[in-house]
Specification:
Number of strands: 0
Number of domains: 3
Oligomer: single chain
Radius of gyration: 33 Å
Strand content: under 5%
Distance between the termini: 75 Å
Largest sheet: none
Order of helices and strands: HHHHHHHHHHHHHHHHHHHHHHHHHHHHHH
Helix content: over 70%
């Protein structure tokens, strides 16, 4: 027996004999005997815990060869674990015996046994397989098996949360020992994570930080919690999820990837549906922490580069930005983090300009604001071209977040017949073709102007036919430069939806065009953006919104 622990060999043998006796005799006398000895058993278990908390598993087995048999039998005895204090101390003892980083077969075997014991202890199904005597005992307490289970789990979890919050691990000798115990405790939770009643303990662990710089929670625990969240098996508080993603980057990246893949594969019917999917991921609210926001930004940058600026990716970035800004305004009323913290490399005046809503501006004000944005971007691009391509990319990337300004520019260009058409065409050309290597963007703008002038001429035609428009389309779609096609499609769709002439043939022409030229994804993405923006303008574009929604349903089935 351990010296200075107060535990003698005869004392240990006495309680082991009692545990064996209680496990074999199922009479009223044995129940009474357990109840009679519970106060003494509690004191003995406290002595065991006092000794175990200074040992690792291997040392504990060497000092107390039969410790596993004793604790195991007590954990399976409903009369013992029905006593709050005994149950709590048994849990503490198991925590001490669990090895966060098992070093030998003994510790590996002990870990497996402890996990099985915990699953039994906290499992309703485990109670269901007990014999009639245990159920009779539960009945004598005035409880149903379900009530007994809930009370049992509540007590175990509550005691651990209390001890964790009181930093009971500080009773150990060193910070390293504290971290070891916390890691062991979180690993004990791994097989139990899906139990709803363990939620308070998970949240307490996720909010626990040691004094050192190293992560105190085991990565296996963090990964298991994240997996349960992503599979909707558990629901933790927003603050707990944020703590998880802040302290474990792979979990955040996996959450981002899963949400991104679902948005691409599920193809939401509308931007409103996409907004719901993005918000349900908790990512926009978590991104109110700048560290998480910057990780999201890096993810989106890589997605843009790997897909060569796919329209599906661009719209996800734009919608995510809308969700983030809403969460930022709701959660950041005390201005904990300024917007500069999220966009440290962006010109603040440009960011402020993007943050205005096109729907909040009258026609004259909208025109002036679009020109203002175009002039600022031009100046920045001219400066950045002399510095580095990365600066140019950052400017374009910021513009992508606020793509509704590109939509507003296309509509305003065709509806208002703006005198400053060059500025708006440049804005659209930059949106679709930020790179001006070999005057590529300049060429895109010139070809975009040709399409724009053709559409302007058609807008003056008394009665427009699909054949009239087809000539412009044939000329555009024969061009090899992808950016020119994207810009032209944007102008053509805007012309059909926002001009009186175009509206008459919009339904027939857009569906035929998208299918014939294999442009269903790009056209659907553009229609979704237009429908969302037009719906914010209420009565003015009510007919357009209905038309766009009908087209989206048609394209969903043909795509």
């Amino acid at each position: 027996m351990a010296e200075n622990s107060g535990i003698t060999k005869s004392n240990f043998e006495f309680w082991l004999h009692k545990a064996l006796e209680w496990g074999q005799i199922t009479t009223l006398e044995s129940q009474q005997d357990v109840c009679l000895h519970l106060p003494e058993l509690q004191e003995f278990l406290l002595q065991i815990y006092g000794a175990l908390k200074h040992m690792n598993c291997t040392d504990a087995v060497q000092k107390f060869p039969l410790i596993g048999q004793l604790l195991g039998r007590l954990c399976w005895n409903p009369f013992v674990i029905g006593h709050d204090e005994c149950q709590k101390i048994l849990m503490w003892c198991l925590c001490c015996l669990y090895s966060g980083e098992p070093q030998n077969p003994v510790e590996l075997k002990a870990n497996s046994w402890i996990q099985i014991s915990l699953c039994h202890l906290l499992s309703l199904s485990g109670l269901g397989h007990h014999d009639g005597d245990i159920n009779n005992f539960i009945a004598t307490l005035g409880l149903t098996p379900a009530d007994y289970y809930l009370k049992l789990v509540e007590n175990v979890v509550s005691s651990l949360v209390t001890e964790l919050n009181r930093n009971w691990f500080n009773r150990f000798n060193s910070q390293r020992s504290i971290s070891f115990r916390v890691r062991s405790l979180c690993l004990l939770c791994v097989p139990l994570i899906n139990l709803p009643d363990i939620k308070p303990l998970l949240e307490a662990l996720l909010s626990y930080y040691g004094d050192g710089s190293e992560e105190v929670l085991h990565c296996e625990f963090l990964e298991a919690v994240n997996e349960a969240i992503l599979q909707k098996k558990i629901s933790l508080s927003e603050s707990a999820v944020v703590q998880l993603w802040l302290r474990h980057l792979p979990s955040l990246e996996k959450a981002l990837l899963q949400n991104f893949e679902s948005l691409i594969s599920d193809q939401p019917n509308s931007l409103e549906e996409m907004i719901c999917l993005i918000k349900s991921s908790l990512l926009p609210r978590a991104a109110c922490h700048p560290a998480i926001f910057r990780t999201v930004e890096e993810f989106f940058k890589n997605a843009l580069l790997e897909t060569d600026g796919a329209s599906e990716v661009m719209i996800i970035i734009q919608v995510f930005m809308q969700c983030f800004l809403q969460a930022y305004q709701e959660n950041n009323k005390q201005h904990k983090f300024p917007l500069k913290a999220y966009f440290p490399h962006s010109l603040h005046s440009l960011l402020r300009a993007f943050l205005r809503q096109p729907s909040d501006l009258p026609a004259t004000g909208l025109h002036q604001h679009l020109i203002h944005i175009a002039e600022m971007l031009k100046a920045i691009v001219k400066t950045n071209c002399m510095r580095s391509c990365s600066n140019l990319f950052e400017t374009w990337f910021l513009f992508i977040h606020f793509g509704e300004w590109a939509d507003a520019a296309a509509e305003h260009l065709l509806v208002s017949k703006a005198e400053s058409s060059d500025a708006l065409l440049w804005l659209l050309a930059f949106y679709y073709d930020p790179n001006d290597e070999n005057h590529q963007r300049t060429q895109t703008m010139l070809e975009g102007r040709s399409v724009y002038e053709h559409l302007t001429t058609l807008s003056r035609t008394p009665v427009l036919s699909a054949r009239d428009l087809q000539a412009a389309v044939n000329s555009t779609m024969s061009r090899r430069q992808p950016a020119t096609k994207e810009l032209a499609v944007h102008l053509i769709i805007s012309f059909l939806l926002f001009t009186a002439n175009g509206h008459a043939i919009a339904r027939e022409f857009i569906a035929h065009f998208a299918v014939t030229y294999g442009e269903v994804p790009r056209v659907s993405s553009l229609l979704s953006r237009i429908a969302h923006r037009a719906s914010q303008l209420e009565i003015k574009y009510q007919t357009t919104v209905k038309l766009v929604n009908d087209l989206l349903q048609i394209l969903k089935f043909v795509g």
